[in-house]
Amino acid sequence: MSKQPQQQVVRIATDTAVPLSKQQKAFNRYTKRIADQEKLIAELRTAIDKGRQRIQVELLPLRNQFDALRADMVRLFDRMNTHHTFTKPERKKLAYLITDISYELIQKGHEDLTEIHDRYDEGGFEAAMAEAEGESVASMRMMAEMMFGIDFDPSVDVSDPDKLREYISQQLHQRAEADAQRRQEAEAKQASKPKSEKQQAREAKKQAQALNVTKAVRALYMDLVKAFHPDREPDEAEKARKTGIMQRVTEAYEKSDLMGLFRLQLEFERIDQAHLEKLADSQLIYYNKILRQQADELDGQLAQIQHELRAMTGGGSLFGSSTAVGLDYAINGDIKAVKADIKTLKNDLKTLANPAVMRAWLKTFRIPKDIGIEPAAGFGYF
């Protein structure tokens, strides 16, 4: 069985009496960097897939159970307020708790709480949603003005978040197009100016280098094509094998994946270690340009995956939220925390069903004056 491409080590051997040249050292440095990046990217992608599965299977059911218990707490507050005597301040606190918790839960699918919510909110749930949407639009508009300097046309309807986002996107797109047009005009103006001999020589050298880089990749590609093109293969089994190889070859070539082409060359014995050691510096110069570009592109992919990991873990983490360990740690922490909240909430539902306990707790509870401030003496589910 052929080895998998990722198992092929692309490296110029160093166990020789002849020291490696500068280009050979650079080749080894880039191929190692790419191999390390690919390994880390694969590990992080696997971690993300496993993390998403754990969230779906282990965490979301717990969160749904937690929200169902919070809905039961809203109903308990409503029953207590309906069937027992409380002071005016205590009723005000109950009304706040009922509307605050139910408002969030209704948006999560607990529509049956709408009737309870609206008995304690004169405007009703729909009006509260409209007010929140208006505040969101105002905040988004202010940020767009401050961050991007966007001037809003008074005649354009940006009354809801979707319309506002569309308007901002259009404005940024138009600005980008205008910037691109200005750059093109500046480049055209610069190109129309007579070039000195030095400028012409630099451009010619740059074009020649780009052509040589392209040729370097294509040479590896064409060698593999000649060896494995399936069209003239009479044996059906061998034809199928070559078709699979050519799919891998074409994919690597279209991505300008020089490392992948080298691995295929080694895997199918088109080249060997001795061939790598005999590569001239004049060839390695162009290979190294491609490998450096490939390594930089992988850096970008890695940064994007790490950003996704940070988003999944909710930001910073003691163990590094952009790592597989950090993701696993964060999910374990969330599961543990929700389980603890569920246990506490079940106990609170039993305890607060006693009117005397409810009154005692309401005396310690404080309605928050500002958004984002936790209620004093409140439970974690508020």
Low-confidence stretches: 1-6, 316-320, 372-378
What is the helix content? over 70%
Strand content: under 5%
Order of helices and strands: HHHHHHHHHHHH
Sheet of most strands: none
What oligomeric state is this? single chain
Count of extended strands: 0
Question: Which key phrases capture this entry?
Answer:
382 residues, mainly alpha, 0% strand, elongated, coiled coil, J domain-containing protein, J_dom_sf
Descriptive notes:
The protein is mainly alpha-helical and 382 residues long. Among the domains are: 138-178, no CATH class; 203-278. The chain has 12 helices and no strands. The protein has helices spanning 22-83, 88-107, 114-120, 124-148, 161-192, 197-228, 236-254, 258-267, 273-277, 281-313, 324-351, 355-364. α1 crosses α2 (88-107), α6 (197-228) runs parallel beside α8 and α7 packs antiparallel against α8. The longest helix has 62 residues, at 22-83. The chain is elongated, with a radius of gyration of 32 Å. The two termini are 60 Å apart. InterPro entries: J_dom_sf (IPR036869). Keywords: Coiled coil. Residues 174-206 have a biased composition (Basic and acidic residues). Residues 27-54 form a coiled coil. This is J domain-containing protein.
